[in-house]
Write a structure and sequence with these properties.
The chain has 394 residues and is of the alpha+beta class. The protein has twelve helices and ten strands. Bound molecules: flavin-adenine dinucleotide (FAD).
């Protein structure tokens, strides 16, 4: 592949860099810190999203006709590079920009696009994703939340769970069963529900890190106008799959694995061991080198994926490989940090004697989430087994 940037790409970089330099004071503290503090920086995230929106930098990859800049693959990479250069990140303000907006561009009617897209782009309406239920996760099509027609409305009853950001959201894109007797994939519809409607209750769940980034959401006789149906009734599975495609294709990259390797090096250099530091122990250096090799392998797998996209080919199995390997590498690195810390690993986040404010134990607990969402790692194993290795279906 050609790793050089075109003149147009460089102009894009220059414009974004200039804007970022002038507006970086509006960015929240680094995302890691916010996540580790249990998402308490929500207002900061929204402020940053609104600022980016003012500069037309919130969704540069969106098509120009929908208010984006029509930025291509390389320009998206530049966007990430320029943010990372200043230690910044794109705002984490729900699923509107990444998942729902692009899905609506594809499946929504003109009235729906006009109603919802501008508010997503202005960071005025926050969206969450209502897919998983207590009995339906990997086998999503078995979902039971019901919507029954009543005049110009659907009446929704049921429960969703693990809904990220539901406690902050104004709207939810919701999978509901509209035909209980049809084969399971064929009786599902895709509804847009106002989270402030009577009968909607979001109860935050406390994760093992202590953070509350997702909720269980209950629907009791919630009346939803029929105009909020996206796509055809009972054809919601296809719409839902479009959203999942955006979710999975957005998970690429080496997930900052090299950055975490460097943090481990720093940790090892400051931890005393046998009169020297942990870094002086060749076993420790060897282990960290192994992580570094894996992080590089991930980066090059990412480049392979990029090459396919630049050639106009559909995403390949690299996405599943990167999701699986990237999330497990992050988890193993966090567990190794626990070993390095020894008794200090027991210190809670922000405890007075904790090393690095206790971020390593927080990270170790938090690193399990990504091995579960966007298709669990066991499901990724299945995909790789069947589609890459050609093994028979289990
Ligand atoms: C941090 C986080 C954020 C999330 N945010 C959202 C959100 O915003 N909206 C939303 O709708 N959902 C969200 N989820 C839920 C997520 O999509 C589900 O947890 C996931 O799909 C798994 O479903 P489950 O939890 O019901 O587990 P199950 O599907 O019940 O799986 C249980 C175990 O069985 C394994 N398993 C299941 N089927 C197979 C199989 N066929 N082969 C091999 N092993 C299998 C799984 O890998 C897992 O280990 C989030 C989850 C997390 C952790």
């Amino acid at each position: 592949m050609d790793f050089n940037y075109s003149a147009e790409d460089e102009a894009f970089r220059k414009e974004f860099r200039t804007w970022l330099e002038a507006n970086r004071q509006f960015a929240p503290r680094p995302r890691d810190v916010l996540a580790e503090e249990g998402g308490t920086g929500w207002d900061e995230q929204v402020r940053w999203a609104k600022k980016l929106s003012e500069g037309k930098w919130l969704a540069p990859h969106w098509p120009k006709e929908y208010g984006g800049r029509g930025a291509g693959i390389m320009q998206n990479i530049i966007y990430g590079e320029e943010l990372a250069r200043l230690g910044l990140a794109a705002p984490q303000t729900g699923m509107g920009i990444s998942l729902f907006g692009p899905t609506l561009m594809h499946w929504g009617n003109e009235e729906q696009k006009k109603r919802y897209i501008p508010k997503i782009l202005a960071a005025e309406e926050i969206w969450c994703q209502g897919y998983s239920e207590p009995g339906s996760g990997s086998d999503l099509a078995s979902l039971q939340t019901r919507a029954v027609e009543d005049g110009d409305y659907f009446v929704v009853n049921g429960q969703k769970v693990w809904t990220s950001g539901a406690q902050h959201a104004d709207m939810i894109f919701l999978l509901v069963r509209t035909d209980p007797v049809a084969p399971k994939h064929k009786g599902i519809s895709y509804l847009l529900v106002d989270m402030h409607s009577p009968g909607v209750t979001a109860r935050p769940l406390v994760q093992m890190t202590g953070a509350r980034s997702f909720s269980e959401v209950f629907f009791e006789d919630v009346r939803v106008p029929k105009k909020n149906l996206v796509g055809e009734k009972n054809q919601g599975w296809q719409v839902a799959m479009t959203t999942l495609m955006f979710e999975r294709s957005g998970g690429g990259g080496d997930r900052g694995a090299m950055g975490e390797v460097e943090e481990l090096v720093e940790l090892a250099k400051k931890l005393p061991r046998n009169g020297k530091t942990a870094w002086d122990d060749s076993g420790v250096r060897q282990k960290i080198s192994e992580f570094a090799c894996e992080a590089h392998a991930l980066r090059y797998t990412g480049y392979r994926q990029l090459t396919r996209l630049l050639k106009g080919l559909p995403p390949g199995p690299e996405g599943s490989m990167m999701k699986l390997c990237g999330t497990e590498l992050a988890l193993r690195m966090a567990v190794f940090a626990m070993e390095l810390l020894g008794p200090y690993s027991q210190m809670e986040y922000n405890a007075p004697l904790a090393i690095d404010r206790g971020k390593w134990s927080f990270r170790m607990l938090g690193a399990r989430g990504p091995t579960i969402f966007a298709g669990t790692n066991q499901i990724q194993h299945n995909i790789i087994g069947e589609r890459v290795l050609g093994l028979p279906k289990g």
